[in-house]
Design a protein that fits this description.
Blueprint (H helix, E strand, L loop, with lengths): L1 E3 L4 H7 L3 E7 L4 H16 L4 E6 L4 H6 L7 E6 L2 E7 L4 H10 L3 H6 L6 H25 L1
Parallel strand pairs: 1-3, 2-3
Antiparallel strand pairs: 2-4, 4-5
């Protein structure tokens, strides 16, 4: 991971041609330390995606520029544009999902990932059916 600060930000970001990730952290932040191995794994698993880090105490102007309200904060960027971001402790699988699906047509059009509705609606339907069945049985036997 490469460290970005106010002095080298423009130089490093202007060299990027594709997707890159910026991790905002504070050295006094416990959850940030928890995320260190996650970002290390993200960096190792995606050799074609540069992962940068910005210390918000060292470069508060960059944190303000990106609208960082809490750390850890991660942004997925391309051509100086923020495509997606997370705040807080985030599992590697969620970060990897963004890397793997960043070029999804739905995401590029809507700015969000398509939600899996099938599994959720089935659970809801089963719950409603069980609730109705319970009331019917109560009505019959009481």
């Amino acid at each position: 991971m490469k460290r970005i600060n106010g002095e080298n930000f423009d130089q490093l970001v202007n060299q990027e041609k594709g997707l890159f990730v910026i991790k905002f952290f504070s050295p006094t932040c416990g959850p940030c330390k928890t995320m260190d191995p996650v970002f290390k794994a993200l960096n190792e698993n995606n050799s074609d995606v540069n992962v940068y880090e910005i210390d918000t105490m060292e470069s508060p102007e960059l944190a303000a520029h990106f609208g960082v309200k809490g750390v850890p904060y991660v942004t997925f960027c391309e051509n100086r544009e923020v495509l997606y971001s997370f705040t807080g402790v985030t599992p590697l699988a969620d970060l990897q999902f963004v890397v793997d699906n960043i070029n999804d047509a739905y995401f590029r059009t809507h700015g969000e990932f398509r939600k899996e509705e099938g599994a959720q609606s089935k659970k809801f339907e089963v719950f409603v059916l069980l609730l109705i069945l319970t009331f019917v049985l109560l009505f019959i036997f009481l």
